[in-house]
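thoughts on these C-alpha cells:
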Amino acid sequence: MSKAERDIRRKLRVLKHYEERGNVAKTCRHFGIARQTFYTWKKNYEKLGDEGLIDHKPCPENPRLRVAPEVEEKIVHLRTTYHLGPVRICWFMQRYHPQLKVSKSGAYRVLRRRGLNRLPRNAQLRTVQTQRYEKQVPGHHIQVDVKFLMLNDPSGQPIRRFQYTAIDDATRIRALRIYDRHNQVTAIEFIDFVIERFPFRIHTVRTDNGHEFQAKFHWHVEDLGLRHVYIKPRTPRLNGKVERSHRTDDLEFYQLLSYTDDVDLNQKLRVWEDYYNFNRPHGSLAGKAPYEVLKEKLTTGQPVPAEV
C-alpha cells in the first residue's frame, strides 16, 4: 500500500467516525488531532474527494538551493568513505576542490536528503567529559603509544603487527612505524627514529605504563637528554591525542588497506603519515594541517587557536 493510499484510508476513518457520532470534539479527542486539522480534511474532501486527503509538501523544493550534481557526488563520497561531517567536508572541498564550493549547511542538506545525516555506530563521535588542554611550544610534550593491529595476509592468515605512534602535543605532527615485535628494543628503536623525524627538539616524552616503556626504555630516553614521564595507571585520556589519532587511523587508513607484506605496509604507512602531517585538515586545528600550524607558530611566535 502506498503512502497516498494510507493517507486516504486514515482520514476517511476519521470522517466516518464523525458522521456516525456527529460530534467534532469527541472525534478529534479519539484520534488525537486538532479541530483545525479535522476541518481542513473535511473541507478538502468535500471539494476534491479522495484526492484532497493526500498529504502534500507545504511547498515544492527550490532547485536553485540544491548543490550541483558533481558537488553532491563529492560530498556523498567523503561521507560514505571517510565518515566526515559537514564541517570537515567543507574543509576538504576548499582544499582539494576549490572550484566546487559548498557551505556547511549545503553539505548537511545533501547528507540529510540522501539519508546520510547519521553516522554508523562505530564512527559516531563520543562526548568528551575531560577538560581539553594544549601545549603551545612544539616538542615540549610528545605522546607515544602502541596500536595493536590484526591484519590478514593474501592467503587469509591473521598477521599481528604493532604500530608505534608519536604525536606532538602542540602541532599534532606525528611519526609512525610498524614492527613485528612489541618490546623495549622496538620502543627504543622507535624513539630514536622519532628524534630524527621531528623537525624540532623534544623536551618530554609521555607514555603509559606498558611493558615496552619500562626501565631500559626510560633510561635510554633520559640518557638522550629528554624527560620521560608516565601517565597515571588506567587513565588513557591523559594521552588522549595519540589515542584519538589511532581512531583516525582506523577510519581513514586501515579500513581501506589491503595487506600484502610488511614492506608494502610500511610504504603505505609512510604515505599516510605524510598526508596526515602536510595535507589533512584537522578538526582540532580549525581545518589546518599540522605542518601549517607549525609554520604559523614559527612565523608569528603566537599560539594558533584550536577549534573544538
Notes: Residues 3-21 form the longest helix (19 residues).
